[in-house]
Write a structure and sequence with these properties.
The complex is a heterodimer of chains A (599) and B (196).
Chain A: E1 2-7, H1 8-18, E2 23-26, H2 34-41, E3 48-51, H3 55-67, E4 72-77, H4 78-94, E5 100-105, H5 119-126, E6 130-131, H6 136-153, E7 157-159, H7 163-166, E8 168-174, H8 192-195, H9 199-221, E9 227-229, E10 235-239, H10 241-252, E11 260-263, H11 272-279, E12 284-288, H12 294-306, E13 311-313, H13 328-339, H14 366-377, E14 383-386, H15 411-422, E15 427-433, H16 434-450, E16 455-461, H17 490-497, E17 501-505, H18 510-522, E18 526-532, E19 545-547, H19 557-562, E20 567-570, E21 573-576, H20 586-590, E22 596-598
Parallel strand pairs in A: 2-3, 2-4, 4-5, 5-7, 6-7, 10-11, 10-12, 12-13, 14-15, 15-16, 16-18, 17-18
Antiparallel strand pairs in A: 1-8, 9-11, 19-22, 20-21
Chain B: E1 4-11, H1 16-29, E2 34-38, E3 48-55, E4 68-73, H2 76-81, E5 86-95, H3 102-106, H4 113-123, E6 128-134, H5 136-143, H6 149-159, H7 168-178, H8 184-191
Parallel strand pairs in B: 1-4, 4-5, 5-6
Antiparallel strand pairs in B: 1-3, 2-3
Helix pairs in contact in B: 1-7, 6-8, 7-8
The chains are: A alpha/beta (599), B alpha/beta (196).
Chain lengths: 599, 196
């Protein structure tokens, strides 16, 4: 063992490698992305690692490998689990051979997600056992146990850290390379009575799964990480994840008037016996957890089942907020109120006039140019701009205001079609990025062509998965094994499906882009424009532009129209922030007085 | 249990993450236990970002209001935004240069960096025990680079003795370990730039 300073996601990746993982597949999504990247970066070639096209593919690849005896890890964020849920629901009935850990990172807040869904609740629904680490170090140690449990019971298991576990760094003891587990899977052994799901098999296995989960609940009651910390009162706190770490810090400062504390690291199957023993020693309990009132409901169930008269407080009683993150300050407030401790109010300092800083498209981002070209071309027309998930969701901000809807990955295509069905004279647009196109937009294109929808697809092709930190995808020609492969061409896919008009255009050629949009949008049926220009973050900036104060008439069109963070007002005058300008020159094409020039 | 709590704040892209990493590397090499947490994801694109650093034994990587020993502001309004994290008698070291959000330019409103410094000054003595502002425009001019503001601020904090047991030499060693050799000299110069 040796000491290292690791991010939670790095720790999980390192642990997987040390546990002898053979196959790793995932789809990027904050806050899960760095797990797979860590494994790929430190891979000596013995582990197969891939960014799959989407989470469903990732889970299926891992399932096949697990059938073959390999230890596998699948990584995704919580909304990715929705995509992977079809194979996972069935896989639980079929089971696995090699250990399979499904890492799903939840995002209380949400900080970078569409929903505040809770994978613990999904675990209960899908009957898949679930581990919930409370910090980066615990995540490292726990992952070995997750693999062992998966193998012992031949079931996939969930591993669900949250953002503050994934992205927090901590110093910790980790295994040396010599201590790594080495596993050589046997390969797939044919047995259709095991691997082919039929109603009869499901019926038999369902009963077995329920029995196993009852036994697991009991086993988890003596699992060392589900732990009771004695108090000095008849009050108790039950907590999990990062909330537990915060609660523990607060309680450790106390020597008297201390509540008992129960930490739950295996929410499903719930360690009922352990909880029952804990509830027997207290009169009142506060549950401090994030997302769903999951533990709170389990405790209420235990109280009902065993006739315990304990007052359970938490989200259901309004003592803990039902949405958002549990910050240290909030947790302190909850506990202080519950224990009757004094807690100073935090709003004693007034801070007026703070600037609002919503995230924006970067200076030099090609998406800005693409959005603006469509906006200019469609001026005065009745339109719908259906957006999607990626950096380009930020196209909704003023002054662009070019995202009318955003639902989930790939949804923009269907939404544009649906809006058009209600009001056929609307010019319907769907915007989708290159990675999202491969992940989940292709079926939407097939649907539009087959059902003869009248719409325009705009593919914003910046040759990367930008929002999550520039992962490769099928269109980039690189794999996570460091190999080069044929790029899958978006234009050929569209033509193959039967989209007759497909035009490629550089969005930084403003006038030409506007013409192309006007022409293509006027054609009937399903058509597409691929705006091609690489992500601004991937390249060294070119020489920045400057404003010629002599030519500038202060009309501020550049600021009102395109919203580039590099174009600012300094001492009442429009100028360009040379530290932000990326040299794309798009603003110079918007300026009516030719006052913006390359410096 | 003695913990030193530090919050770094600024605007996405200003180098708070690298400063946090160097600080952590320096503390690790000193054999200190530590935890850090930072903003990753959507907010990195020009939004408000902050990092927590906790030196010493503790369980959680996030810190409570009124418990930070030091706030390092890469932008004055961002320092004001999180000032309630500072404990009574804590220290604030901040850049004086305002970074305009796109929204401010759009509304034609010039948000005032000097006013933010005024707010902090008003708190000095009663809430903030020591406030140091760095003339960033001058620093960038003198050093010939806008990329080392993070080292100017971190250096000021180290030389003032506000980083717990971590010294300026520890940070220099961390730079040698983590930063490309051609940038060492510039970073060292930046570390030494502010006289406290």
């Amino acid at each position: 063992m040796h000491k290292e300073f690791l991010m939670g996601n790095e720790a999980i990746g390192r642990a997987a490698a040390a546990a002898g993982v053979n196959v790793v597949a995932g789809y990027p999504g904050t806050p899960s992305t760095e797990v797979l990247e860590t494994i790929a970066k430190e891979n000596d070639g013995s582990i197969y690692v891939e960014w799959s096209v989407n989470e469903k593919c990732a889970l299926e690849v891992a399932a096949g490998a697990s059938y073959s005896g390999a230890r596998t890890l699948v990584t995704m964020k919580q909304v990715g689990l929705n995509v992977a849920s079809d194979p996972l629901m069935s896989l639980e009935y079929v089971g696995v051979e090699g250990g399979m850990v499904v890492l799903v990172a939840d995002d209380p807040g949400p900080i970078s997600s569409q929903t505040e869904q809770d994978t613990r609740t999904f675990a209960q629904y899908s009957k898949v056992p679930c581990f919930d680490p409370s910090d980066a170090k615990e995540a490292y140690d726990m992952l070995f146990e997750a693999f062992e449990l998966s193998e012992k019971y031949k079931t996939p298991v969930f591993f669900r850290p949250t953002t503050r576990v994934c992205h927090a760094y901590q110093s910790m003891e980790v295994r040396d390379y010599a201590e790594f587990v080495e596993r050589r899977p046997e390969g797939f052994i044919k047995d259709s009575s095991r691997w082919v799901i039929f109603p009869k098999l499901s019926y038999i296995n369902h009963a077995k799964i329920e029995e196993r989960n009852d036994a697991l609940g009991l086993e988890f009651s003596s699992y060392a990480r589900n732990k009771v910390f004695e108090g000095t009162t008849r009050k108790g706190i039950v907590s999990q994840g990062i909330s537990f770490a915060i609660v523990k810090d607060i309680i450790d400062e106390k020597t008297e008037d201390k509540p008992a504390l129960l930490k739950i690291t295996t929410p499903f199957p719930f360690p009922e016996k352990l909880a029952c023993d804990f509830l027997g020693k207290v009169d009142e309990v506060l549950v401090v957890e994030e997302l769903d009132p999951y533990i709170e409901r389990q405790l209420l169930l235990v109280c009902g089942k065993y006739g315990l008269k304990v007052n359970i407080k938490g989200k259901l009683t309004g003592d803990v907020r039902r949405s958002g993150e549990n910050t240290a300050n909030l947790v302190n407030e909850y506990i202080s109120k519950f224990m009757g401790w004094e807690h100073a109010s935090s709003n004693e300092i007034e801070t007026p006039g703070l600037p609002v800083r919503p995230p924006v498209l970067c200076a030099g981002c090609p998406h800005r140019a693409s959005f603006y070209a469509v906006k200019a071309a469609m001026k005065g027309k009745e339109t719908i701009f259906a957006g999607d998930i990626g950096c380009y969701t930020l196209g909704n901000a003023q002054p662009l205001d070019m995202v009318d809807t955003c639902l989930c990955m790939g949804a923009g295509l269907g939404i544009a079609q649906g809006v058009g069905r209600v009001k056929p004279d609307t010019k319907c647009f769907a915007f989708v990025g290159d990675s999202t196109f491969f992940a989940s937009a292709i079926t939407g294109v097939v649907n539009a062509v087959y059902n003869q929808a009248d719409m325009t697809l705009i593919v914003l092709d910046n040759s990367t998965t930008a929002m999550t930190g520039h992962q490769p995808h099928p269109g980039t020609g690189k794999t996570m094994m460091g190999e080069f492969t044929d790029k899958i061409d978006i234009e050929s896919i569209l033509r193959g499906i039967g989209v007759r008009t497909v035009v490629k255009q550089n969005p930084f050629e403003f006038k030409k882009s506007v013409e192309v949009v006007k022409k293509v949008a006027d054609e009937p049926g399903m058509k597409a424009i691929i705006f091609e220009a690489p992500c601004a973050v991937l390249f060294k900036p070119e020489t920045p532009y400057v404003v010629d104060a002599g030519k500038c008439v202060d009309c501020r069109k550049c600021i009102r129209e395109i919203g580039c963070p590099g174009v600012i007002i300094r001492e009442g005058k429009v100028c360009i922030d040379e530290t932000l300008c990326n040299g794309c020159g798009f603003c110079s094409q918007i300026c009516p007085c030719d006052a913006i020039l390359r410096s | 249990m003695s913990t030193t709590n530090i919050v770094l704040c600024g605007v996405g892209g200003q180098g708070t993450v690298l400063a946090t990493k160097l600080m952590a590397s320096a503390a690790m090499d000193k054999g200190l236990d530590l935890r850090t947490a930072e903003t990753i994801g959507m907010a990195q694109r020009g939004g408000s970002v902050s990092s927590y650093i906790r030196l010493g034994e503790c369980g959680s990587p996030v810190i409570d209001h009124r418990t930070a020993d030091l706030i390092i502001g890469f932008e004055p309004a961002e320092a004001v935004r999180i000032i309630y994290y500072l404990k009574k008698g804590g220290t604030v070291i901040t850049s004086d240069r305002a970074i305009m959000p796109v929204t401010a330019a759009l509304q034609g409103s010039n948000y005032d960096g000097a006013k933010m410094i005024e707010i902090l000054k008003d708190l000095e003595g009663q809430y903030i025990s020591k406030l140091f502002t760095v003339d960033t425009k001058k620093a960038i001019h003198d050093l010939g680079s806008s990329k080392v503001l993070n080292m100017v601020l971190l250096g000021a904090a180290a030389r003032g003795g506000f980083l717990g047991p971590v010294t300026i030499d520890d940070i220099k060693a961390a730079i040698i370990k983590n930063v490309k050799p051609q940038f060492h000299e510039l970073n060292f110069k930046a570390l030494e730039y502010v006289e406290l």
